[in-house]
């Protein structure tokens, strides 16, 4: 097992993350007031962000999760998307907000947008904690962005390396 050393200073502190999540929750709440909103968290990485975000949105909403695989245990995307968990909630006529931890190459998010837009949802939009455009290979629109970052391989607050470091409350760049 590789023992990787985290830097002592986070790229995003716990306080910065929580403040921004509250702001995103307010924006989303205003945007979707009076509508039927479903948050679809993308597992595994977005489970912490989705949990915090749903509590910051002052609306009656539904929450479910999807699971896609594109990275596996590697640090780079395989480029192949496989949906291994569909939502249990009927999305017909509802507004869907895909919630992702990080949009990096854009491949997964573009695939998810296309997949759910082709269904019976009234509208499909996206929210990501981190929009990291340095490795973007697929054009993708992100409607709600927590932070724009262009540096490093990030871990913590749900982000992982080979399923490790998700439990960190801040976000670090892994060397």
From TrEMBL:
Origin: domain of life: Bacteria
Gene Ontology molecular-function annotations: guanine phosphoribosyltransferase activity; hypoxanthine phosphoribosyltransferase activity; magnesium ion binding; nucleotide binding
Record keywords: Cytoplasm, Glycosyltransferase, Magnesium, Metal-binding, Nucleotide-binding, Purine salvage, Transferase
Pathway field: Purine metabolism; IMP biosynthesis via salvage pathway; IMP from hypoxanthine: step 1/1
Domain Phosphoribosyltransferase: 14-161
Cofactor: Mg(2+)
Assigned EC number: 2.4.2.8
Protein's cellular compartments: Cytoplasm
Catalytic activity: GMP + diphosphate = guanine + 5-phospho-alpha-D-ribose 1-diphosphate; IMP + diphosphate = hypoxanthine + 5-phospho-alpha-D-ribose 1-diphosphate
Annotated GO biological process: GMP salvage; guanine salvage; hypoxanthine metabolic process; IMP salvage; purine ribonucleoside salvage
GO cellular component: cytosol
Main location (coarse class): cytoplasm
Pfam families on file: Pribosyltran (PF00156)
Family designation: Belongs to the purine/pyrimidine phosphoribosyltransferase family.
PANTHER family membership: HYPOXANTHINE PHOSPHORIBOSYLTRANSFERASE (PTHR43340:SF1), HYPOXANTHINE-GUANINE PHOSPHORIBOSYLTRANSFERASE (PTHR43340)
Protein name: Hypoxanthine phosphoribosyltransferase
